[in-house]
Design goal:
Domain Leucine-rich repeat-containing N-terminal plant-type: 22-61
Order of helices and strands: HEEEEEEEEEHEEEE
GO molecular function: methyltransferase activity
Strand content: 15-25%
Distance between the termini: 79 Å
CATH superfamily: Ribonuclease Inhibitor
Oligomer: single chain
InterPro entries: Leu-rich_rpt (IPR001611), LRR_dom_sf (IPR032675), LRR_N_plant-typ (IPR013210)
Number of domains: 1
Helix content: 10-25%
Largest sheet: 6 strands, mixed
Shape: globular
Signal peptide: 1-21
Organism: Hibiscus syriacus
CATH topology: Leucine-rich repeat, LRR (right-handed beta-alpha superhelix)
Number of strands: 13
Length: 196
């Protein structure tokens, strides 16, 4: 009887891992479906696999959960999708030097394990979502070289003051306003280029 219970528990545990990994694969596949990929760098992203850990440009932890997506300089175009917010253990989202467009989804703020968010040198527009202030593990934030506008959310400066966010580059965008000097940051003036 005890061996049957053990087998049943192992089966349930294996199924829960498979379901979790499939949901991550589904989230990444939803993104892939929105992307133009002229160099076919996402050819290994096969949604029929048990999990996305064997896909190129994706790395997983020992529990087969996605922790890194690295698609820098891949000539991709299209949007970031809200489904990316479902990658609960994601630590690195590196998609610099592409032609990604549209806004940064609010759901990116769900990625509380994120250490590095590198979206630099794309065509992203709109404001920085305030939800990025939820990224308490974030050390590197690179949004430079886009077409982002509005003001920088004060929540990001709180991440700097708490000592977690050590690199924040938001240059070469269309922000308006002034960032004031504190004892932890230097003065930065961000002007709307249309005002000049």
């Amino acid at each position: 009887m005890a061996s049957q219970i053990l087998v049943c528990l192992l089966f349930v545990a294996a199924m829960s891992v498979a379901v979790h990994c499939n949901s991550e694969g589904d989230a990444l596949n939803a993104w892939r479906a929105q992307l133009m990929d002229p160099n076919n760098v996402l050819h290994s992203w096969d949604p029929t696999l048990v999990n996305p850990c064997t896909w190129f440009h994706v790395a997983c932890n020992s529990e087969n959960s996605v922790i890194r997506v690295h698609l820098g300089n891949a000539n991709l175009s299209g949007p970031l999708v809200p489904e990316l917010g479902q990658l609960a253990n994601l630590q690195y989202l590196e998609v610099s030097d592409n032609n990604l467009s549209g806004s940064i989804p609010t759901e990116i703020g769900n990625l509380t394990s994120l250490v590095s968010l590198n979206l630099q040198h794309n065509q992203l527009t709109g404001p920085i979502p305030s939800s990025l202030g939820n990224l308490v593990s974030l050390s590197f934030l690179k949004l430079n070289g886009n077409k982002l506008s509005g003001v920088i959310p004060p929540y990001l400066f709180l991440l700097i003051q708490r000592g977690n966010l050590i690199v924040m580059n938001v240059s070469d965008n269309m922000f308006a306003g002034t960032v004031h000097r504190t004892n932890l940051t230097v003065t930065t003036i961000i002007q709307d280029p249309r005002a000049s």
